[in-house]
Amino acid sequence: MKQVGIVGGVGPEASNKFCELLIKHTPSKKDQENIPFLHFCNPQIPDRTDFIVGCGENPLDELIKTSILLENAGSDFLVIPCNTAHYFLADIQRNVSIPIIDMTKILVKEILSEYPPLKKVGILATTGSIEAGIYQDYFCSVGVEAILPNSSDQETLVMRAIYGNDGIKAGKKILPQKLLMNAAQKLIEEGAEAIVLGCTEIPLVLKQKDFGVKLYDPMELTAKEIVHYVREESKDSFVGVDFVLQDFAKDLGRKFEGDKLVEVASY
């Protein structure tokens, strides 16, 4: 059975949660039927958002070091349970010989598979992810409109909930939940048909039962994808850096002229 390498510590509670999700979604009746994984929790990886917005140390070297350690320890492929870290994914992949699963593409792939097709999705993510266009660019390429918080809400609701003194990274939950529920509701009022939980800290406080639209958690979707890939001996394409979302969209009946979507199939 393939062994998963988990680049953890980004942040620590979120990567621990990913390990739980991997176990939760693995159908097993005994210990030996679970998927083996190596989790290197390295909280010394510099903050990804700080670097992207121009006020912090580049985390790439530490991300590469952590990935190489997991490869040398026997991992067959890697996963990084941090959305913002996917800004560096192609560079990390160039420095290891095993594939890295792309959590952000798995999320977009899942949304493309919905019927009826979703036209507008709201994104809650770090400012680093937003400024890097991690999700917006992918959604734009397949004809899905991304709705983002305004700059004030991004700072006072989303980033405060994640990074504030009473935020999730500080081990708090009550205030972050209130702030993020407010941010999500505003996106829904602007027309979002679903909400992407685009930072791995956010699913620690936002729950589906509190919303009338579907919440998409890239971390949980990725855990399920890994189980499918490893346990079911899936012949599907590995969703890594080379996975082309437009090709997947075309297989679903979406038609493009160049890079522009011109038709969505009514399947």
Structure description:
With 267 residues, this protein is an alpha/beta fold. It has two domains: 4-102 and 220-231, Rossmann fold (3-Layer(aba) Sandwich), CATH 3.40.50; 104-217, Rossmann fold (3-Layer(aba) Sandwich). Helix content is 41%, strand content 13%. It is built from eleven helices and nine strands. The chain has helices at 12-24, 48-52, 60-72, 89-93, 103-112, 127-132, 134-141, 151-163, 174-189, 218-231, 245-251, and strands at residues 4-8, 37-41, 77-79, 120-124, 145-147, 194-197, 214-216, 255-257, 260-263. The protein has a four-stranded parallel sheet, with helices on both faces. A three-stranded parallel sheet has the order 2-1-3, sandwiched between helices. A two-stranded antiparallel sheet has the order 8-9. Helix 1 (12-24) packs across helix 10 (218-231) and helix 8 packs antiparallel against helix 9. The chain is globular. 41% of the residues are buried.
Structural shape: globular
Which stretches are poorly predicted, pLDDT < 50 over at least 5 residues? Answer: none
CATH class division of the largest domain: Alpha Beta
Helix content range of the residues, please?
40-55%
Provide the succession of SSEs.
EHEHHEHHEHHEHHEEHHEE
Number of domains: 2
Could you tell me how far the N terminus lies from the C terminus, measured between alpha carbons in angstroms?
Answer: 36 Å
Number of strands: 9
Output the radius of gyration. Answer: 18 Å
Which structural class is indicated by helix and strand composition? alpha/beta
Largest sheet: 4 strands, parallel
Count the DSSP helices: 11
What's the average pLDDT? 95
CATH architecture of the largest domain: 3-Layer(aba) Sandwich
Q: What is the beta-strand fraction?
A: 5-15%
Using the coordinates shown, work out and report the CATH topology of the largest domain. Answer: Rossmann fold
Q: How are the strands of the biggest sheet laid out side by side?
A: 5-4-6-7
